[in-house]
Amino acid sequence: MFYQLIEQLRIDTLQQSLPLFGAELTLVVAIVLILLCRMLPVLEKVDSVWLGIVGVIAALIALRPFQPWSIGADGPVAIAMGQLQPTETFTGMLTHDGFAIAIKAILLFFLLLFFLLTKITKLSSRFDSADFVVLALGSILGMFVMSSANHMLMIFMGVEMASVPSYALVALQRRNKKGSEGALKYAVFGAGAAGVMLYGVSLLCGVLNSAHLPTMATRLSELFASEPSGSEVLVLALGGLMLGVGLSFKLSAFPFHFWCPDVFEGASAEVDAFLSIASKTAALALLVRVAVGFTTLPAEPAQVARATPPTIEQVAFVDAEAAPEKALQSSDPLAPARKFVVLLIGVVAVVTCTFGNLAAYAQTNVKRLLAYSTIAHAGYMMMAVPAAIAVAEVDKNSARQAIAYLALYAVIYLFMNLGAFAAIAFVREAVGSEEIKDYAGMLKRGPTLAICLTLILVSLIGLPPLAGFIGKFAIFAAIAQAWNLTSSPFLMFLLIAGGLNTAISLFYYLRIAKVMTIDSESDDTAPMQRPIGIIQNGYLVLVTAPLVLLLFNWDFLNAWLLEAVSHIIT
Amino acid sequence: MNFLTEPVGLSHFLAVGAFLFVTGVVCMATKRNTLGILMGVELVLNGANINFVAFASPYFREDNLGLEGNLLALFVIVLAAAEAAVALAIALNYYNNHSTIDVDKANELKG
Amino acid sequence: MLTPEDSLPFLLGLAVLLPLVSFFVIFLFGKWLEQLGAHIATGAIAAAAMCSLTAAAIWMAQHAPPATHHAHPAESHAVISQSSVHLTALHDGEHDHDHADGLVHGEHDEHADDAHFVPPVYTGHWYSLGRFYGSEVAINYYIDALTIVMFCVVTFIATCIHFYAGGYMHEELHEVTDHEVTLADGTHLKRPGRYHRFFQYLSLFCFSMLGLVIAGNIAMTFVFWELVGACSYFLIGFYVERQSASTAANKAFIVNRVGDFGMLIGLMAIWASLATFNFGDVDRNGDGKLDPHEHGLFSLLRPAGENGLHELRVPDGMVLQGAKERVEEMIVAAQPGTTTADLESQILAQVSLWRDGKAKGDATHYGYWLLVIAGVGIFCGCVGKSAQFPLHVWLPDAMEGPTPVSALVHSATMVAAGVFLVARFYPVFAPEVLLVIACAGCITLLIGGSIAIVATDIKRVLAYSTVSQLGYMMLALGVGGWAAGVMHLVTHAFFKSLLFMCSGSVIHAVHTNEMTEMGGLRKKMPYTAYTMLVGCLAIAGVGVPSALGIPFGFSGYYSKDLMLEQAYLFRSANPLWGSIFFYAATGGAAVTAFYMFRMWYLTFAGEPRDEHRYKHAHESPRVMYVPLVVLAVMAVAIAWPIFGNYGLTNVIEQGRPIGLWSDMASLDGGYVWLHESKSHADEIRTPVGLMAFGAAMTGIFLASAMYLWRVLDPTDARRTFAPVYKFLVHKWWFDEAYDVLFVRPAKVIAACCVWIDKQCIDRLLHGLAWSVRQIARCGEAWVDQGAIDGAINWFAAKTYSTGAALRGMQTGSLRQYVMFIVVGALAMFVLMSFWSYGFAR
């Protein structure tokens, strides 16, 4: 029996899981190689950033974001994204599906651009570049785990694996007072949030008697179906909230955002880009996983549950088109959980968004301002989740579309924030300041940078004809569609709040643009120490170009993401 | 139902876990010393660990978390150690820059 | 590739585009190219000339020109005597041979082959500009012998002029001091040279003219027509700083607009009634067959007919347009229950009756006058462009441009465009229109010739000579001499460009236009003098008349004789008008010879009248006189009949449009146009040749007597004919008359408009604006500043203060942050519990 167990494990691990784990393995190999290089004096000269870039590219190749691997009858085969059935790997710890692959692809793509950026700003050579690269790669590894988590252990581990290296990343500027303070706050806040989250996880697992997400969902539906006691529901709600604390910390959602502005101000702009893009994307993916996992039944158990002979009522309703869904909905045990999740995430999203936009008003430091902008954008992106959950049982296609839109926003957000933080880094290199007032006269001092940054800011507002508009419009469209299908007033409230927030956000973004383009240099503006080089400008143009070009054709992106999420809500 | 007179069961473990959790949170929120705060974090994590172990025990409930709970607890211990290591290093770095580990002095970044 | 269907459009299209490319290159990079610009432009036009000549060679190889159509003397004689009989038959539209006598019959048989001759034409399609209800406006081409000839002439002469201009405009390479422009501070204007710009315009000019020639539809023609006008505007106003130059450019442009207005009317008439602009048939769908909507103007207007003669027939569209009221009557009177298809077929059945005026109780020839209007309208455009009376006034003023421009404008491009269009559009012109053309040409010829006698500015003499010669061409075309008119267009292009370039050479040498300050220059500049003499002899039409044996002479001799012969032939059928035309033309020939030789004598012969200028005079550089020699050779030999069938006459004859191989008569039969081939009869040739020779010799003799031998004193003559002289010197008071008739009234009306505008409309508007402003001011004070601004400012201030207050939450204290984790989680828990109290039922 023991032998059988081992044999099963061997088959599961070596023949099924590891081939699908190629990208992560590649990253691990890259990490190990970089660390090894440091040990051998001969290889010390090897630039770890380039090694990291090679590793990322190798991981991208192993990931195959357009034709991912799938385990067939005879080993792994590459199939089209839309045909990829979700596969549980490592005895149900992780799941291998299109959504995870899409998120991983976005993360790797970001990491590529991020390494290039650090190469340009020479950030990595200032401290030990190997440390820096290894920490970034390690953090990304954690994010991979987050995006494909299928088990409570993996959720917690993913969050920790992603967070702990990023604490160190923030602290890497060793002689920087602000940096060390930011890192301390980040580490302590993160640890606290992780603790609370873990406690919530323990409660959830205890009540549902499982840590495997689909099993938990099935148990939850059974629980709701069988008249749960008040205390059970209370514990579940508390556990869910505490789990939400951990996620909110990663998303920097109100009221767990406090670390964000301080850390962003303390860390270097490049690390800010990492935190605001990679971390947010992975956190959103995890949010989608958890929210969808707890509110919809997994495919097989649901079928088993429905295998009970249909009642007369159900048969009678078969003719009418909407009837079966209605019948399902009325007998849908997870409806309360869905309502809870929609309400919770929706409220948090609106409050986060509003708070971020309002607090950004009076900022004088660009990085701090962008930190609040990041908070606000996290709010916008979170709004897609309630839209998806609300219609998960009514119209699965709309729900999938909402999640695809969320991922689309994440892609556009990647370019916007990376561009913004890159511009900040370049200005820091040239002017040595990160105060908004020192951006005065930037149109004359560095025209390319000023124009690109202005475009990025306008895109962040979400004004056409830039890509930011697509993202925002897509999210609002998803909410509107959900409202159409459910006519729930709460979704309308979300929509209105989102629109108002966009209007509010206009001013503080445009303030930077105004300082750059209209205000002229004065005596107290920090002088230009060196001009902004052509590589820097080229990088900025490279990152800004998609924001302009995507409007012409973003369908391919949407189509890819739609295929990727085609099996997420079954 | 007298909580104290009952034989030791799941509820008692959960009570201890909750106590540890609350202690840890209070510790985190009140301690000025960074090390104290980190200790609070450990308390919180251990509170959760006690929950896991208790939920996993086959002696308390028919329908239990089983091995998963124990495994979770083990992993958490490891992760807590890693996190503590990094946090301590960061605290040390903070000390190098500020010559103190009083978190109330860390208020340069605000607004 | 060597089939004409493929190669001709390609070669000629290339020839059109090369100057355009050159234009763009110079336009974009002119400043850096400097002298290279001239080389590019010259190279482009020379390459275009090569293309054209190759095209001509291919054409000739494929289409052997017909032998000349010399009618037998007896027949021709008979025709003249019997013309009226024959023409009655023509007019009836039925060639009833029983009614005609035998001679006519024979003549008819003799020319039966010719009458059915369809000239070789290549039409095709390049680019579709737009479709309107199935009718298309496109860029397409129409290539026949006329196109080929025009291409060769235009590109060849333009090439010579480009070379010449390369030398003539040399001073524009550096900074130029314009001595004719005095600034306010008394100094002369200094400006950077505009060498490249000159060639840029020249290139565009050539492109426009070539495009006009190859155009396959009248709309495209109109576009290039206007382009030619615009280019002439640029070039005449090249010395834009000179008041006279800019005025002249404006004049040329505005006067041309008057003509173009008429042309637009003609275009509208054609488009509205026929729904096509194409000259020829273009097989658009490429199925090898011609659908009804693929027919061009020519085949619509001149269908093969029962006898295959391609006689002018008013097309159905025009008849229907003309008989609109009748059609409406029919529709109103239609029996109830008639289907639309029935009604349509009834109306169509009426069309041929309406056309011939045979409808019951209605002898109106519906649609015929629409055709006349279309023709006259198109001719109006030609009047403007070819400087015919009454729009000839712009041409002499156009002398303000640099001389190479004058040479180009007066020979191969601008003014030739009008004559070319008349020739191209010939099948569309009703006989009444031809009469109008002939009249206009006759008047122009007299006006131009008479003024040229007294002009003293060397270029003005030539300009009026051009006016007069254009009148000749129009007259010839108007009296039915299609080949004669085109022939003169070609020969005139050569010797007139030669004459202008010679005059330019003289001006280049002595820096004045006034002939009174020249004289005796032939010793100083022999090349110029003798090439110019060749030009004078050519334009005078000197040659041995056919009565004296072998007819032989300068090129002008052939074309002028052809025209006079046709006028004589016309006279034979229409005594009154014909006599006027013929004697005017013959007298004009004498006048031409007189003023040309007067000019030559004044310039080159006798003693120098201005010693200072004479001393500085010199022969022009080689780049200028070599083109003169080349053109002189062409002016002598271009029309020689020694090339057999491939001579100019025969090639032009080959281009004679469809349907012009038979006689024509006006609607009421009062005027008859006899076929041109009849004019080659010896009965006509001998007297006409002698008369033309006599006229030319008289002119030359008179000029020699007055200016060479000094037997007659010109001042005496001037005194004797003082009123006439005054009349001529003032150019018949045309400018003054136009000033009084049009310019001043226009200015008065404009002044009235200005007054109304300023006093009434402006005041009204100002008042309105003032009141609106007052209202707006009130609105601004109360609504905008008070309510809206207040609200916005309040909102902004609140937003900002909220933001600032929210900043206060971010105290920077870590302990508080951690506290918020707990407080936040608890607060959310409580909130959620209350909010969704019932979520757990």
From TrEMBL, chain A:
GO MF annotation list: NADH dehydrogenase (quinone) (non-electrogenic) activity; NADH dehydrogenase (ubiquinone) activity; quinone binding
CC per GO annotation: endomembrane system; plasma membrane
A single GO BP: ATP synthesis coupled electron transport
EC number: 7.1.1.-
Keywords: Cell membrane, Membrane, NAD, Quinone, Translocase, Transmembrane, Transmembrane helix, Transport, Ubiquinone
TM stretches of this protein: 20-37, 49-66, 98-117, 129-146, 184-213, 233-259, 340-362, 369-391, 403-427, 448-470, 490-510, 531-552
Domain of life of the native organism: Bacteria
InterPro entries: NADH-Q_OxRdtase_suN/2 (IPR010096), ND/Mrp_TM (IPR001750)
Assigned protein family: Belongs to the complex I subunit 2 family.
Alphabetized PANTHER family for the sequence: NADH DEHYDROGENASE (PTHR22773)
UniProt-recorded name of the protein: NADH-quinone oxidoreductase subunit N
Automatic annotation (TrEMBL), chain B:
Signal peptide region: none
Free-text function comment from the UniProt entry: NDH-1 shuttles electrons from NADH, via FMN and iron-sulfur (Fe-S) centers, to quinones in the respiratory chain. The immediate electron acceptor for the enzyme in this species is believed to be ubiquinone. Couples the redox reaction to proton translocation (for every two electrons transferred, four hydrogen ions are translocated across the cytoplasmic membrane), and thus conserves the redox energy in a proton gradient.
Subunit structure: NDH-1 is composed of 14 different subunits. Subunits NuoA, H, J, K, L, M, N constitute the membrane sector of the complex.
Cellular localization per UniProt: Cell membrane; Membrane
Source organism, top-level taxon: Bacteria
Transmembrane segments: 12-30, 37-60, 72-95
GO CC annotation terms, alphabetical: NADH dehydrogenase complex; plasma membrane
PANTHER family linked: NADH-UBIQUINONE OXIDOREDUCTASE CHAIN 4L, NADH-UBIQUINONE OXIDOREDUCTASE SUBUNIT ND4L
Keyword annotations: Cell membrane, Membrane, NAD, Quinone, Translocase, Transmembrane, Transmembrane helix, Transport, Ubiquinone
Family: Belongs to the complex I subunit 4L family.
Recorded catalytic activity of this chain's protein: a quinone + NADH + 5 H(+)(in) = a quinol + NAD(+) + 4 H(+)(out)
Entry-linked Pfam families: Oxidored_q2
Protein EC: 7.1.1.-
Recorded topology in the membrane: Multi-pass membrane protein
The protein, known as: NADH-quinone oxidoreductase subunit K
GO biological process, one term: ATP synthesis coupled electron transport
InterPro entries from the UniProt entry: NADH_UbQ_OxRdtase_chain4L/K (IPR001133), NUOK/Mnh_C1-like (IPR039428)
Organism listed in the record: Blastopirellula marina DSM 3645
Gene Ontology MF: a single term: NADH dehydrogenase (quinone) (non-electrogenic) activity
Main location: membrane
Organismal lineage: Bacteria, Pseudomonadati, Planctomycetota, Planctomycetia, Pirellulales
From TrEMBL, chain C:
Presence of the UniProt keyword Membrane in the record: yes
Membrane-protein topology: Multi-pass membrane protein
UniProt GO cellular component terms: endomembrane system; membrane
Pfam families documented for this protein: Proton_antipo_M, Proton_antipo_N
Entry's localization field: Endomembrane system; Membrane
Main location: membrane
Single GO BP term: ATP synthesis coupled electron transport
Domain NADH:quinone oxidoreductase/Mrp antiporter transmembrane: start-end pairs: 215-284, 364-569
Gene3D superfamilies, A to Z: 1.20.5.2700
Span of domain NADH-Ubiquinone oxidoreductase (complex I) chain 5 N-terminal: 136-172
Domain of life: Bacteria
InterPro entries assigned: ND/Mrp_TM (IPR001750), NU5C-like (IPR003945), Proton_antipo_N (IPR001516)
Gene Ontology MF annotations: NADH dehydrogenase (ubiquinone) activity; NADH dehydrogenase activity
Span of the signal peptide: none
Keywords noted in UniProt: Membrane, Transmembrane, Transmembrane helix
Keyword Aminoacyl-tRNA synthetase tagged: no
Protein name: NADH dehydrogenase subunit L
Source organism (scientific name): Blastopirellula marina DSM 3645
